[in-house]
Amino acid sequence: MSPTSLSVVSDAVRVRVPAKVNLHLGVGPLRADGYHDLVTVFQALSIYDDVSVAPATTLSVSVTRDSGRGSGSRDVSDIPVDNTNLAARAAIALGEYVGREPAVSIDIVKRIPVAGGMAGGSADAAATLVALAALWKLDVDRAELVELAAGLGSDVPFSLRGGTALGTGRGERLVPVLARGDLHWVLALARDGLSTPAVYHELDRLRDNGSHDVPEGDVDPETAHPDALISALASGDANAVASHLHNDLQRAALSLQPTLRRTLRAGVDAGALAGIVSGSGPTCAFLCADDVSAVNVAAELSGAGVARAVRTASGPVPGARVTDE
Ligand SMILES: C[C@](O)(CO)[C@H](O)COP(=O)(O)OP(=O)(O)OC[C@H]1O[C@@H](n2ccc(N)nc2=O)[C@H](O)[C@@H]1O
Ligand SMILES: Nc1ncnc2c1ncn2[C@@H]1O[C@H](COP(=O)(O)OP(=O)(O)OP(=O)(O)O)[C@@H](O)[C@H]1O
């Protein structure tokens, strides 16, 4: 390797950033600004995108599908590589904030399912903020990065933070939640993605067609607080956590992709404690009693032919972090 290419390698900063699942997702009515108030409990899971940034003459983005085992991405060709990519938007926003040209190359290795309800794009935006803060040796504190993150998307602040957290507002206002021990998950990845706005829109449509503002089984975020789930997380009892998993967006995701009902049933039949649609879907997340059970459930689900791919993961894990792995 020439000294020049060595210096290019050493100039790059790589950040590893996790996927998320919502253990509780209470969705309020549509607000005037097009968003919904949420009460949500996020958990970061051990499926990661890697985002590398390096100095360049102009801003560019590349996205590669990790071809190794553990890859969650079916195809990355749907992901834009222009300035609409959330990672590019993060670089532009941070550049504007600190008065710097975002002349960097951003290379994303994708493992988080695309349009899967696991905050893949948000993860890349959060990773880019952390990577550029390190590359440019910025004197910005965490609160400033969180503020920029919230401007990029509702899930981006959680991708920065990771762990387990209670989210309110659009989902961007976070407080940490104590979770004892690790939870073991199986993820069933769907063949087609779901658009987040389309799923929220479908929930509004279903609610408009129903007789109640907040239909039976849904949680009113104005009044409901996921206390029982938070106590279960503190106790580290996976059975108790499983019985308090809840997602108001689930029926909208099922309405748009009815085959997910079969996937949810198959996971529980395979021995999971409970199954839930992850965020806006269509990924289904199954909570298992322990790591051995997760491997067994994953094997059985793979054989059932109800998913494009099946992965195991554990949580909580930290948010976007510089790595040299
Ligand atoms: C479904 C979740 O993943 C749960 O954590 C998030 O609420 C989605 O967060 P996100 O992908 O970061 O979403 P954003 O980029 O902020 O918003 C995309 C679109 O989703 C809808 N949206 C999002 C968040 C929210 N609290 N209410 C909404 O109605 C809006 O139509 C919005 O235009
Ligand atoms: N870096 C990125 N990674 C993935 N998708 C991106 C990225 N930048 C922009 N997008 C666009 O965003 C769309 C949603 O992709 P993403 O993987 O973030 O969905 P998601 O995980 O369901 O989102 P969330 O869970 O935050 O609602 C994609 O179809 C793609 O066109």
From TrEMBL:
It is an enzyme of class 2 (transferase). The keyword ATP-binding applies. It comes from the Bacteria. SUPFAM superfamilies: GHMP Kinase, C-terminal domain, Ribosomal protein S5 domain 2-like. Gene3D superfamilies: 3.30.230.10, GHMP kinase, C-terminal domain. ATP binds at residues 113-123. NCBIfam families: ispE, PRK03188.1. PANTHER family: 4-DIPHOSPHOCYTIDYL-2-C-METHYL-D-ERYTHRITOL KINASE, CHLOROPLASTIC. Catalyzes the phosphorylation of the position 2 hydroxy group of 4-diphosphocytidyl-2C-methyl-D-erythritol. This is 4-diphosphocytidyl-2-C-methyl-D-erythritol kinase.
